[in-house]
User: Fold ABC transporter permease from Corynebacterium glutamicum.
Amino acid sequence: MSRTGVSKKPKLTAPVVIIGTLVLLIIAFTASLMLGPVTVPLNELATNPVVTDIRAPRIIIAALVGAALAVSGAIMQTVFHNPLADPGIVGVSSGAAVAAVLAIVTGASFFGQWTVPFAAFVGALVTVAVVYLIASSRAMDGRGADPATLVLVGMAITAFLGAVISSATANAPQDSELRSVTFWLNGDLVSRTWEHVGVAIIPIIVGLILAIGGSRDLNLLLLGDSTAQTSGLNVNRARIILLALAALLTATAVAVSGTITFVGLVVPHLVRIVLGADHRALLPAAAILGATFVIVSDTVARMIFSPIVLQTGVVVAFIGSPIFLYLLLSMRKRRGLGL
Assistant:
C-alpha cells in the first residue's frame, strides 16, 4: 500500500494506459473543435475561422490547464503523503488567484503580459510554503499530516484569501476590472486567445518536463523520509523543488483559466487505480488524462444548455465533487476497518 492510500501494483502496463489516454485526448480534442453552435466538418478544421480563431486557442488552454493541475495534484499528494492534497483543496489555487486579482485591480504591469502569471506564481508559492510548514509541523515523523487536518487548513486559507478577493472586488475602480476578477473566481475559458496560449504554453510545458524528470525523487518520497535519505536523496531540497514546480504549474493554470478545482485530486487517483503509483508512468498518464478531462468538461459547458454557456470550472466541480466525497468516505471506511 502506497503513502497515498492506493496499491502500487499496476493493473495495466504503462504503454497501454498512455496510448489509450492519448487516443482519448485526440478524440476529445477533435470533437471539441468540431462541436458548438456551428458544427464544423472534419475536413474544414484547419481552415474554418471559427476553429482557428475561437475554438482552437480555448481548447489548447483547456488541455494545458488540465495537464498542469493533474500533475500538480499528483506531486502534492506524494510530497505531503496525503491522498487529499490538491491545488484547489489546500488553497494553492486561491493563493495564485488572489495575487493575480490584486495585480489586475492595481493595474500592475511591471512584466508586461507576464505580470499576472508572475504574481500568480508568487501567490501560489507563498501559499504552498505555508501549507508545507503546517504539514511538516504536524508530521515530524514523515508520515504526513492527517488528511482531515490538511483539508481544514486549506479551507481556512481559502476563506482568508476569499476575503482578500472580496475586498479587492469591492474596491475595483472600473467595471472591466470587476469582470476580470469574476473570471478568476469562477474558472472560465471564454474568450481565450492565442495570446493566452503564448503566456501559458512555455511555463506549463517546461514545468511538466521537469516534474516528470523528478519521478525518481517522487518514488523515493513514497517510501518515507528515512528510506529516501538512505537512498541518497536530499529530502528537504527535493520537496522544495517539487513544490515549486507544483506552484509554477498551478499558478500558470490559474493565470489563464481562473480557479478550477478537483482536477488535481480526481485525475491522479484514477490513474493510480489503473496504473499504480510509479511516477514515471503516473505523471505522463495524469497529464494526458487531466488535459482530456478539462477539454471534455469545457465542451459540455459549451454544449449542454446551448445557447447558454456554463463556466468550465462549474462543470468540473459537478463531476469532481461527488468523486471527492467518495474518496473521503472510502478513506473513513478503510480506517474503520483497520486497513
